[in-house]
Amino acid sequence: MPLHHYVPQFLLRGFADKDNQLRATLRSNLQTSHLTAVRKAAAERDFYTIPTEELTPESRRGHNPESVEKSLADIESRASSDIRLIVAGGSPYTTALRYRMATLVAMQLTRSPRFRRDYVGVANLSARALLERKLTDDRLRQHLSDHGRPTSPEDVARFRKEVFEGEYKLVPSTTHLVQETLKFGIETLSPLMFSRTPRVLRFSEPLLLTSDVGAAPWSPNDPIPWSNGIAKAHTIFLPLNRFTALALTRGGSPSDRIVQSIWADHSNFALANAAERWIYQHPDDSSLDRIDLPQLQHDRWGRR
Fold it and tell me: What is the C-alpha separation between 202 and 208, in angstroms, rounded?
């Protein structure tokens, strides 16, 4: 079973030591950390695999279950060259380079376990809202009758409560999650990222960290990541290494300059707070100590 990275290894290496080791800190318990190799970080087995048996019979012929991973590897290969250019001082403001960076950021925002969990949560909330409009007492009564169950007004009310307060939930297939989350990244978020202003933030000392989401939105005075939505967020941060981050902002002019350390704190807060499980930093760094993260809270659908 292949190991698929949801944060590219070329980005993770920017935070590793000479032995390609990272310090991984558990988001739910910041006192728990360990060293891990880049090749093992931010990865799951078969995360992008599309099983042949989940496809319709007419789509199975010639199907490669690893086709999505291969496509992502192609995007990452081109992006790694761009990142090296940006880190070395090259400008990310040509149209072609901006497009590739927008695609990279959009894919990073939608390819992680965190985004999949939020996607399923939103799908369940939407389904519940639809059911509340469609499930009349007559329909519930008919369902109970079809299954040989009592149909008194009390039974209908009890069943309604069971449906909306019980454990019923949508469980999308792996194929659906892979296809729809990445489709959202390419078709919806990529144009939005391209419309933003790219700014390269440089720091004179190693202040940046990353996490298992790789990129995250941030807005001033917003303690809950993603609450403003990606489209309305003040800034989307993509840390490139310990010294450099790409920031896509709403409005303003492109820039490439050394900035105050507060911007590292903003980026670190966004990435660490949005982490699904792990926060990553260089083993010698203490960037996480500079920020105050709130306790994790989840709704009934697992969303934060």
Answer: 10
Asked if 201 contacts 263 with a C-beta cutoff of 8 angstroms, the reply is: yes
Buried b vs exposed e over 96-109: b needs ≥16 C-beta within 10 Å?
Answer: ebbebbbbbbbbbb
**Cα–Cα distance, 246 to 165 (Å, whole number):** 43
The answer as to whether 301 is a domain residue is: no
**302 domain-assigned:** no
Tell me if 284 is assigned to some domain.
yes
Please give the residue range of the domain that contains residue 140. 3-290
Q: What is the pLDDT of residues 240-278, one digit of tens each?
A: 999 999 999 998 899 999 999 999 999 999 999 999 999
Nearest to 231 by CA among 201, 267, 190: 190
* Total number of domains constituting the chain: 1
pTM given for the model: 0.87
8 A C-beta contact, residue 41 and residue 51: no
